[in-house]
Amino acid sequence: MYDKVYVKKKARRRAAAVVAAISAMGITSLAIVAFLGRYTGTFTISLKNQEVALTLSERSDFTNTTSFLRLSAVPQFDEYQFSRVLEKQPDNEELDYTYGASHYDSKGNIDAYNFLKYTFFVKNVGTSFAGYDLKVKLTDDQVADPTRAGNIYISDLIRVMIYENDLDDEHNYEVYAKPKGSDEDTVHVTKTGEVTNQEFISQRPNSATMVETDEYPLAKNFYDNSTAVKYTGKTLDKGQFRRYTIVTWLEGYDPQSSAQHLAPIGASIKLGVEITAYEN
User: What's the whole-model pTM score?
Assistant: First the structure.
């Protein structure tokens, strides 16, 4: 087990070194690029059947089917950026969840991630038209020391990106984030001119009034404090399947990751996907 004081000092040294390197390249908007924020716990996908027959699989050929998928003991995350996630093109069933790994220990085990991606398929194997709802839950959002002033939670920084597609050559996605913090004195404005509490997915316009553009998109707000995403009224005809890829990372351009906030050392969160099926 690491000594927390040592880890904190180590994190500061890493951050300072990375910031110095980035400043030398002329990019100064990101105050802290990497720290030892720990994203521990589990990633689960569970299917709740009611009157219809849906199944889950990690493969589009459905050679192995199940109603429950689980990743245990996901290690710590470094901060990362939205543009770099897209460069990796994570929506691919040939790439497993280890694709976003950033560091390995001396034994070859993953000890840090840039991002976590997980691709799975939902198929209607019943005889009737099926409906289902899908939720992405955020639970056990905890800091190491709740009494410590200036703490931020993993949910303050995390981004949840969902790819939802019927065909393999489609790569449509949406990105969700916690609404902007009350300590942010900037005004965020949508493309249609509406003032909003939506957070920018990543980088933000360099102006007092921050207006969404194609270059600087806003994220969709989390559904509530414990649910990142809630999709309702989804349907599948018998034999039809749909592909999902869930991608999550700690966004380095989020204002909560600036030098004015403490790094979430020792913080943790759990992420789960719940699918509830019903006869439509």
Answer: 0.82
